[in-house]
């Protein structure tokens, strides 16, 4: 339940930042990379929901791989993929332009989500997949 609420909160914060950030006169860096950090935090929380039996450190590692993978996907172009990226959904989910700065923001977002999970998480910290015999 707490992770579900966290997911909704992170998505709401990310969308609010992207929609209202400039009208609130927030600096470009805060809007652009804050949104990227929140997107990556969303990836972490979503993975934590799906893989609730995994340790937070494993979830963070997978979240980094997913986030960096999506960033590198921006270097791949096909007509249908580029058309999807021009939509609001495509821009929010996949982004449009490759940036190493985004990767740095993703790491900050995932590290923050991981830290908050370690501090406030209610899941079993020692949970892992049982070893096969």
Q: Any overview of this molecule?
A:
This protein has six helices and no strands. It is mainly alpha-helical and 133 residues long. The N and C termini lie far apart (33 Å). The chain has one domain (2-120).
Q: How many structural domains?
A: 1
Flag low-confidence runs.
none
List the total number of helices.
Answer: 6
Span of the ends, CA to CA: 33 Å
Query: What would the average pLDDT be, to the nearest integer?
Result: 90
Helix content: over 70%
Strand content: under 5%
Q: Helix-strand pattern, N to C? A: HHHHHH
Q: Oligomeric status of the shown chains?
A: single chain
Radius of gyration, in angstroms, nearest whole number:
16 Å
Largest sheet: none
- Total strand segments: 0
How would you sum up the global shape? globular
Helix/strand-derived class? mainly alpha
Structure characteristics:
133 residues; single chain; mainly alpha; 6 helices
